[in-house]
Structure formats: structure tokens, C-alpha cells
Amino acid sequence: MRWGVWFEPTQPVRRLVELARLGESLGAEACFVADEGTERDVYVALTAIVETTGLTVAPAITNPFSRHPVATAAAIATLAELAPGRVMHGLGVGGSRVLKPLGMDPERPYTALRETFELNRRLLAGETVGEASLPWFRPGEPVPIAVAGRGPRVQRLAAEHSDCVILSAAPPAELPAFATRIRAVGSAEIAWSAYMAYNATERQRVLPHFSYMAVDAPAEVRTADGLDDATTEEVRRLMLSGRMDDAAKLLPDALVDRYGLAGTPEEISARIGELRDCFDIFMLPMNDEATAADHIRASAEIFAAA
Questions:
Q1: Which CATH number fits domain 3-198+263-305: 3.20.20.30, 3.90.1170.20, 3.30.70.260, 3.40.50.300?
Q2: Strands across the sheet with 281-285, in order?
């Protein structure tokens, strides 16, 4: 089973490098780093990781708004020049955590994503688009581009045109249906990510992470998960002020069972084994900063048994 590690850049870059190297020593093939705007810079972190490991790296995800799309393409090209064949681009519409601190509330996020995807695809293939080009970048083959998102239009764009669909909010029970739809319209790989709660302590560490999902999910998804508008706004306020534990108190504990992989290590291994045909690589998110190394070790054992 192929797997990788996925970090939010909330720890020093040297620490992220250590964790990436640990993951690689245990069998990880890839490393994603989130672009969170006010956290450590995603491209600085990715440069450090790609220089010190043999992992494939990607920003997962960046967005059309916090950097100009041409500057984003140049950053990806620089990484690809540094580590040919080991860089993937990762795009999405962005969420509250990255855009709100920048004072941004885009009106047409899907349109911006679609246009940025096409612009970046062409620039990274060596084309000139309007006045923009990267004349110094002449890759042997185009840089692959992944797309992440929960809405139907974003998922259709990802399935039909991207090289990889990132599913970070797909409930395990619905993953087979997602995979069927994606593979029916294109040849994109599927990178699936789910928080793993393999004991009571990890379950408590997982729940706060669903704050992001709660505030950025489509309205119909929030309703199905039992989150009304007032609760969602309070979760957003607490999340953006850094009070993740308080935000978690407003979330239904059942979110861990719906969106995560919960149970004993043996049960989670068995569940992943049942779903192995529905994804190409599993990207492991971190439950907690302080215990990330132990989490990677424990998860590697679960993956080995899957």
C-alpha cells in the first residue's frame, strides 16, 4: 500500500523535515504541506523537505487568491527544477483558515480555481499565456497537478482534467462511490486522506480538526452532519482565534466515525484493506503536533497490516 504524510506548517520547518524523513524511513512515498497563509511558508517548507528526502512533494493545497497564479506557477516550477520528477502541484479553492486572515471572501471561487488550473497547467508545460511565461523552465514532461475540493463542480473538474484527485473529506463509507465516479470520467489517481483514531486519546485529538470541515463544507453537508448556521459561525470564530479545543466542543463526536477511521489498530487496518481498491495513495494527516512522530510510527504499522 502506498502512503505519504501530510503536514500543516504549524511547526518549525526543521521539525517538518525530521517528520518527513521519519515517514520516508517507514515507507512513505510522498509529503504534502498545506498552504495556510499565516503559518510557515509552504514553499520554504517544501524546498527543505525535497532537498533532504527522496519523497514526492506537493503544496496541498494552495489556492488562486493568496498568491498571484503566475507566481504560484513559478514557485512550482522552481521546486520541479530542484527535484525533477518529484513535484506535484496541488490546487483548491482555499478555506476560511487561509483566506479570512487575508481579508478575502472570494465571490466566484470555482471560476478562479478553473482559470488558475488552466493557466498553471499551460505555464508548467512550457507554454506562453498572454504576457506570462517561464522561459527558464523546460520540463521533460509536464508537472502533474492535483485538485482538491468537496463541491460537485470542483470534483468534476478534478476527475476530468487533473492528474490526481485529493479526497480529504470523503467518508470511508462513501469512498467506493467517489472512486467509481472519478474513474468513470478520467484517469486521475486518487489520494485519500482520513484522520485515524486508533485509541481514545487519538479520538480526542482528531475531533478539533473537523472544525475546518465544518466551516467550509457545503450547506447541505453541514445540515446532514447536524451543524446549523449559528453553530457553524461560532465554530469559525473560535477556530480563527486559535481556540480549537473550544471549537471542538461544539462539534458532534459522531464526525470522527463518519469522516475518520476509528477503532482499534486492527480494525482500522482491516477497513483500509477493504478500501484499498478505491484509492492509489493514502495521505496521513497529523492528529497532534507534539506526538506526530509516534503517530507516524503507529500509522505505519497499521498500513503494513492493511
A1: 3.20.20.30
A2: 56-59, 30-33, 3-7, 281-285, 189-192, 164-167, 145-148, 89-91
